[in-house]
Specification:
128 residues; 4 strands; 34% helix
Length: 128
């Protein structure tokens, strides 16, 4: 077991170890709140790399490493941001028109909503 003292070296070594053998690599995180110690460990049964810190400064870096490893484990690439046209809410005219011909409209009359919610009647208590 090798403790690496530089964060950048640990991050590079951890990602390289995972890419070398993704089916065997295991990644673990240990947090000891009584000591305020964070220990990160990645191994592939032949090589074990560890990083230990008592500083809270490394939390953002730790989160970035987790995100990077999770993306590699899921075999996904970072998504490109969606275009603005896809995020724009539909106009009232577009909302009234159903995308399927002959299907009912998705807008409900506002009169039924104006009454508020329906409250349940409480059951009377049983007499003894």
């Amino acid at each position: 077991m090798v403790y690496i003292h530089s964060w950048q070296e640990y991050q590079d070594a951890a990602e390289a170890l995972y890419l070398k053998s993704p089916t065997k690599a295991r990644y673990s995180v240990k947090w000891r709140s009584s000591e305020g110690k964070l220990v990160l460990k990645i191994t592939d049964n032949t090589t074990c790399i560890k990083f230990k810190t008592y500083s809270s400064i490394f939390l953002n870096r730790f989160e970035a490493l987790n995100l990077s490893l999770m993306q590699k484990m899921q075999n996904k690439r970072p998504d490109t941001p969606p275009s603005v046209a896809l995020l724009a809410p539909p106009t009232t005219e577009e909302a009234r028109v159903s995308p399927i011909p002959g299907a009912p409209s998705t807008i409900t009359p506002s009169a039924s909503v104006a009454g508020g919610g329906v409250s349940k009647k409480k059951k009377p208590k049983k007499k003894k």
